[in-house]
Amino acid sequence: MRRLSLEEAGVFHGHLGPYLTLGYLAGELAVSQLDPQSEFDLTVRVELPLRRPETCFLDGVQCSSRCTLGKLSIEVAESPSGKGIFATFMNVKSGERLEVAVREEVLAKLRSMEGSLSEAVDWVLSQPVDSLFRVRRSRGPSLG
Ligand SMILES: [Zn+2]
Description:
Order of helices and strands: HHEHEEEHHHE
Bound molecules: zinc ion
Strand content: 15-25%
CATH class: Alpha Beta
Largest sheet: 5 strands, mixed
Oligomer: single chain
Structural class: alpha+beta
Mean pLDDT: 95
CATH architecture: 2-Layer Sandwich
Shape: globular
Distance between the termini: 32 Å
Low-confidence stretches: none
Helix content: 40-55%
Number of strands: 5
């Protein structure tokens, strides 16, 4: 099945902003690394500040990873520090896990930007994925 593009994620969400884009890219990374074979193979737990615009990240994750509210495959919690954005994806078939944390420098940069939404999106898209996220791959506890 075809995946939603970032532009289509913007249509779903209502606007195309930098946090939506970060979530989209995080979900895309999880799909490429964990290789789910069906829309039920991947789950995600996201910890983030429960306020906009940070929560826009959640819709990006849903659109690219297919971990959705309706399938109960996305779980959301307030980040312990009240500021970071962390997503832990799990392929429930393989037990492989991918932890993706948005780098603090990226969040600081977005908070400091005063331009338009599209400038912020362009900035996010111009960064290599490595400089947007800290990524750690591991096995899930169920399979040791
Ligand atoms: Zn938004």
